[in-house]
Amino acid sequence: MFRRLAIGLAILFALTTPVAAADGQKIFQLQCRTCHLAKSSLSGPSLIGVSKRSIAALPDYAFSEGLKSKGGTWTDENLDAFMAAPKKFAPGTRMPGTWPVAADRAALIAYMKTLN
Length: 116
Fold this sequence. Notes:
By secondary structure, this protein is an all-alpha fold. The protein has one domain: Cytochrome c-like domain (Cytochrome Bc1 Complex, Chain D, domain 2, Orthogonal Bundle), CATH 1.10.760.10. It has helices at about 1-15, 20-30, 65-70, 75-85, 85-90, 100-110. Helix 2 (about 20-30) crosses helix 6 (about 100-110) and helix 4 (about 75-85) crosses helix 6 (about 100-110). Mean pLDDT is about 85; it is low at about 5-15.
C-alpha cells in the first residue's frame, strides 16, 4: 500500500515540477527567435551560452545602459526576474515583452540551458 502511494506521488511530482526543455523550445520558436538568433543582431543578443554568462557581456551586441550597469551573471533567478519584468530588472532595457506565466519562464530557461 505504501509503495503504491509512493509511486503515485513520484509520478505526480514528475508531472508537475520540472519543465521540459522541449516545452521551452516551442515557446522560443513562437515568441523569441524573431529577435534572438544564433548570432546577435540589431534586434537582440544571441542567447547561445546565456546561462551563467555575465550579464551584457557579448561584444557583438549594443546592450542598454540598464543591463550594462546590472552586473552579475545570468543565473536561473536572474533570467526568471528579467523575463517576468524586464524594465524592472534593468531600467532602460529594450526587451519589449514579458512572460507572466512562471511555467513558461521555467521552460524557456530550461531550453536556453541547452543552447551551446
